[in-house]
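User: Sequence recovery, please. Input:
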């Protein structure tokens, strides 16, 4: 049944792209509506785990640079390239997970969605080092998501 839901979301993505809408929001929204644990399930298909990158500014640029570096080094990267960084954008990007061996997920994540997405993906730093979360962030604006400054250490190990 899960495969049918994935096929439906992929069809929505293809249709959305054909109409020039990008295909990054609707497929993920649909998938999460019909399969709320889709991020977690698809994330398990990433052999080399996942890295979540979150910040107030520079997420898309930093994630794009990291993806280019990793791909040049021979890593197969599943990445939300269009910058759709809410949980539905990550779900859409994960529609491509598990197609090749040794994939690494590299996800730009909005600060407000980071705790939820991190719980579902259990991200780690590059390679197979368990339990390390990668976060680049601007500690000067934690209130931009109505979160106290102590949010960062409570939810993530910070690697800068």
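Assistant: Recovered sequence (160 residues):
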């Amino acid at each position: 049944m899960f495969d049918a839901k994935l096929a439906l979301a992929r069809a929505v993505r293809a249709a959305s792209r054909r109409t020039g809408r990008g295909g990054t929001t609707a497929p993920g929204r649909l998938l999460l509506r019909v399969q709320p644990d889709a991020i977690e399930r698809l994330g398990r298909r990433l052999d080399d785990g996942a890295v979540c990158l979150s910040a107030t500014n520079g997420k898309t640029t930093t994630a794009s640079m990291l993806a280019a570096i990793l791909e040049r080094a021979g890593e197969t990267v599943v990445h939300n390239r269009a910058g759709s960084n809410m949980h539905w954008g990550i779900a859409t990007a994960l529609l491509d997970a598990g197609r090749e061996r040794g994939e690494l997920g590299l996800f730009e994540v909005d600060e407000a969605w980071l705790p939820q997405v991190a719980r579902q993906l259990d991200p780690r730093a590059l390679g197979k080092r368990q339990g390390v979360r990668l976060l680049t962030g601007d500690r000067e604006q934690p209130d931009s998501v109505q979160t106290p400054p102590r949010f960062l250490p409570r939810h993530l190990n910070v690697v800068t």
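Residues 61 and 83 are 9 Å apart (CA to CA).
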